[in-house]
Amino acid sequence: MSGEDVGAIRRANGGHPYGVTVIAGIHGAQSDMGMDFEVARLKRGGRLDESPPLEKAILLVYGRVRLTWNGESAEVERAGCFDAPPYALRVPDGVGVTIEALAEDTELAVVRAENGRGFPPRLYLPRDTPDEYRGAGLMGGTSTRIVRTIFDYSNAPDASLVLGEVIGFPGKWSSYPPHHHPQPEIYYYKTNPEGGFGYAELGERVYKVRRNDALFIREGQTHPHCAAPGYALWYLWAIRHLPGNPYTTPIFLPEHRWTLDKDATFWGKGGAGDGTRSADDGAGAGEVPGRAVCGA
Predict the structure, then answer these.
(1) What is the rounded CA–CA span in Å between residue 296 and residue 291?
(2) Residue 273 has what pLDDT?
C-alpha cells in the first residue's frame, strides 16, 4: 500500500532469516508499545540465551527446542501454529532462559516487558490453552474463529503482558465486532498456505497483511480482521498492561454490539449465504469460563 504508515505496520517481505529479528523494542522501534517483541529463527544446534532483566514470554511457533530455566528443563515440539496449540514459557525478570534448537528449523516469538513483581516461572502446555470457537452461532458463523488465550489478567494477574493466538478461517472475520482498548497491542501473522493474505482494519485505515508482517495497535484504534477465501490467518497477539489499568475486556463499538446477539436478524440469515457449517460444527458459542474476553 503506497504511502502507508510505517508506524502502523512492519512488512516482512517474505521469510525471516536465521537469527533474531526485532519487531519492536522498549527502547527502540515502536517504543510506545511498551514491550520488546522479537522473532528468533534457529537451525538445529542453535542456541539463544534470554537474560534481559524483564518479564519474558517465549512462545514456540513451530519446531522443537529444549528450554532451560531456574534449574528446570523441558523439551517441547510443535509441528505448526495452525493445527497444534502452543507451548509458552513465562518467567520473571530475575530468571534467565536458555533455548536450544533440536529441529532443522525452529521459530519462536519472544515478548518482554518491565515488571518488578516476582512470580513463579510457568510453562504453559497445549492442554492449558484449548481451542475456543469464538463467534460460533453468531451472524451465520461469518466471524467464527479459534482463540487460544495463553495467559491474561484472569490467570496471571502478576503479569505485565497478555498473550494469545487467533486463527481466522478462510473467508471469515476475526477480532470482531470492532473494538478497541487503551493498552497497546501487537499482532504477528502467518497464513496457510504461506502465500495467502488477509485484511486488517486499524482505525479508519485498512492494511493487507501477509506472512510474518506485524501490526501495531494503539489506544482507540479498532482492529477487526478478515482472511481471504482459501487462506487461514493465524496471528499471535501480545497486549501490554498499563500501570494501574490492566487489560481485561475490549470496548466494542456500540453500533455493532448487536452482532453479538445469537438471535439477531440480518439479511441472508438462513439463506444460501449461510453455509458455514464446517467451521461451526461441534463448536459452542460461549466463552471459556473465568477468562477475560480478549476481543480476538
Answers:
(1) 13
(2) 47
